[in-house]
Amino acid sequence: MPARRSNITIDGVEVEVTLKVIKHVHIRVSPPHGTVRVSAPCGTSLDEIHTIVLSRLGWIRRHQVRFAQSAAFTAPRMETGELHYCWGKPYPLLVREGPTVRVELWNGELVLEVPSGSSKEERERLLERWYRQELKGAIPSVLARWERIVGVHPSQWGVRKMRTLWGSCNTKTARIWFNLELAKKHPESLDYVAVHELTHLLEPSHGARFEKLVARAMPDWEGCHQRISQSIFDPGIWVQGLQ
Ligand SMILES: [Zn+2]
Predict the structure, then answer these.
(1) Do the beta carbons of residue 17 and residue 5 sit within 8 Å?
(2) What's this model's pTM, rounded to 2 decimal places?
(3) Cα(197) to centroid of ligand 1, in Å?
(4) How far does the centroid of ligand 1 lie from the alpha carbon of residue 167, in Å?
(5) Are 104 and 112 in contact (CB under 8 A)?
(6) pLDDT band at 205, cuts 50/70/90?
(7) SS (H, E, C) 198-239
(8) Distance from the CA of 195 to the center of ligand 1, in angstroms?
(9) Which of 27, 37, 170, 220 is the most buried (most CB within 10 A)?
(10) Is residue 233 very low, low, confident or very high in pLDDT (cuts 50, 70, 90)?
(11) Mean pLDDT along residues 68-97
(12) 3-state secondary structure of 161
């Protein structure tokens, strides 16, 4: 079925609605103008969308205000002095030319050692590879801990770039995916995504049973859920989503 688009205004906020073949509703607020886009499963009524958007209006407005305030929003230039995040903490980038190609956290700085004349794209790829290593290094102990608590084991796990989800789970193959962006977030986000996706191996839906199981494993899950739902995906797309 082709995607169906319509525009609605809810409490003064313009919303672009797209109905398509997906399982969950996603709300995005995108820079630079704070455009609000809602994707919803086919068959969702405008009344239902109205209710969902109303319940997230505070969150939408907060992000619109932040975009308006950061009028100089730009994509990273990968130059010295620019702030980049690792495990929830900001580090100024220090790009220096050197004999080796490497990334390390040193003395409160994120040091990128690159050959002379390296391009922005090369630096981005290097940093991305480093984030992947960081995340892949952290996941085994996080998973081992929560597997014991939740009482399930995934068949496999992996890291990938995802535009709209922090994590996902294939309940048939018991495979779990983590969003690469989690390396930039506070470690509690990785904990929460691990618990969330592991719990799907017991309960595929997001119903009452799911919430009960998550709460049993992680009593303070609601705060974690809220923080990650309101968190930012690079490069500057604000998304709410967990599958
Ligand atoms: Zn989920």
Answers:
(1) yes
(2) 0.70
(3) 6
(4) 8
(5) no
(6) very high
(7) HHHCCCCCCCHHHHHHHHHHCCCHHHHHHHHHCCEECCCEEE
(8) 10
(9) 27
(10) low
(11) 82
(12) coil
CATH topology of domain 83-240: Zincin-like (3.30.2010)
Contact at 8 Å (CB) between 197 and 225?
no
Query: Which among 57, 16, 23, 61 is positioned nearest to 241, based on CA atoms?
Result: 23
- Each domain of the chain, given as residue ranges in start order, spans 4-69, 83-240
Distance 176 CA to ligand 1 centre (A): 11
**Cα-to-centroid distance, 11 and ligand 1 (Å):** 29
In this predicted structure, what is the pLDDT of residue 9? 86
Whether residue 80 is predicted with pLDDT greater than 50 in this model: the reply is: yes
CA of 196 to the centre of ligand 1 (A): 6
- Give 191 or 69, the one with higher predicted confidence: 191
**Amino acid at the residue 65:** V
